[in-house]
């Protein structure tokens, strides 16, 4: 897939799935801007990798639960990119908690980071696409948890279901401008967000046995499907949810 000359944004691009997607975009010729929340060294490493591919790389530190940070980020995008071709809404948090222990502060932090930020980032970036007459691609990172739920993820699964609903509406709204919007639903992927949870060997073995491919996913397993959906090769997939789980869902019967 050829992304030469394309400008792409990947939120939460310093680690995990976002990192794999950002690097894959750079590998294929895109200029890439990532957002990140905490890890300065990981963000710097990612940008250095991007630049090593002879493309432009940028990083922006942001608390995506704060609307003022989002407004400042949109201004930063305008200062670096003349236009935006691709937006991948990947950033998210999942503090595993018992349902009865989730307080309003925790719920709001997860909701604002996982949904509200992407609502307003997409609003700002899609305006740029429309103003520049860019037939862009927008991708939301949902989750298999939006379909099957999770015992310690009631707040998280709520946000991932919401992202799919948002995506469906935007596929209609932005489709009129030639902008295509879809979502990915990764299964169990080994990332920082679940590393502690999957450090339990019994639980990890159980999860692996439920997957027909008999292994947990890697961030790179998500990068390929993500790149296809935001590439010029995708000419007619709009408003769709793509499950990437190694066959786990169909094996849950």
Placed side by side, the strands forming the largest sheet appear as 3-2-1-4-5-6-7
Mean pLDDT, all residues: 95
Distance between the termini: 36 Å
What value does the Rg take, in angstroms? 17 Å
Look at the helices and sheets and give the structural class: alpha/beta
CATH topology: Rossmann fold
| Biggest sheet layout | 7 strands, parallel
Q: Give the class-level CATH name.
A: Alpha Beta
Count of helical regions: 8
Q: Estimate what percentage of residues fall within beta strands.
A: 5-15%
Low-confidence stretches: none
CATH architecture field:
3-Layer(aba) Sandwich
- Any idea what the shape is? globular
Total domain units: 1
Order of helices and strands: EHEHEHEHEHHEHHE
CATH homologous superfamily assignment? NAD(P)-binding Rossmann-like Domain
Number of beta strands:
7
Helix share, percent: 40-55%
Task: Tell me what the structure shows.
This is Short-chain dehydrogenase. This protein has 253 residues and is of the alpha/beta class. It has a single domain (7-251), classed as 3-Layer(aba) Sandwich (Rossmann fold), CATH 3.40.50.720. Helix content is 45%, strand content 14%. It has 8 helices and 7 strands, in the order E-H-E-H-E-H-E-H-E-H-H-E-H-H-E. Strands 3-2-1-4-5-6-7 form a 7-stranded parallel beta sheet, with helices on both faces. Strand 2, helix 2 and strand 3 (57-61) form a beta-alpha-beta unit. Helix 1 (16-27) packs across helix 8 (219-229) and helix 4 packs parallel to helix 6 (154-175). The longest helix is centred in the middle third of the chain and has 28 residues, at 104-131. The termini are far apart. 43% of the residues are buried.
């Amino acid at each position: 897939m050829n992304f030469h000359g394309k400008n792409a944004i990947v939120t939460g691009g310093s680690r995990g799935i976002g990192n794999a997607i950002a690097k894959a975009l750079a590998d294929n010729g895109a200029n890439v801007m990532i957002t990140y929340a905490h890890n300065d060294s990981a963000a710097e490493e990612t940008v250095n990798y991007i630049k090593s591919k002879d493309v432009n790389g940028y990083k922006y530190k942001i608390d995506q639960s704060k609307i003022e940070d989002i407004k400042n980020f949109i201004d930063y995008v305008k200062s670096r990119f003349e236009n935006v071709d691709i937006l991948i809404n990947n950033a998210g948090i999942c503090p595993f908690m018992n349902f009865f222990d989730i307080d309003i502060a925790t719920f709001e932090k997860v909701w604002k980071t996982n949904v509200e930020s992407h609502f307003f980032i997409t609003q700002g970036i899609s305006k740029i696409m429309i103003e520049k007459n860019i037939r862009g691609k927008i991708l939301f990172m949902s989750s298999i948890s939006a379909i099957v739920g999770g015992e310690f993820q009631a707040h998280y699964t709520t946000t991932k279901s919401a992202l799919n609903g948002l995506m469906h509406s935007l596929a209609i709204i932005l489709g009129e401008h030639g902008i295509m919007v879809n979502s990915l639903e990764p299964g169990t992927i080994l990332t920082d967000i679940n590393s502690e949870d999957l450090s339990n060997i019994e639980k990890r073995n159980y999860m692996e046995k439920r997957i027909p491919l008999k292994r947990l996913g890697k961030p790179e397993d998500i990068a390929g499907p993500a790149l296809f959906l935001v590439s010029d090769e995708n000419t007619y997939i709009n408003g769709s949810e793509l499950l990437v789980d190694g066959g786990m869902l169909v094996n849950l019967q």
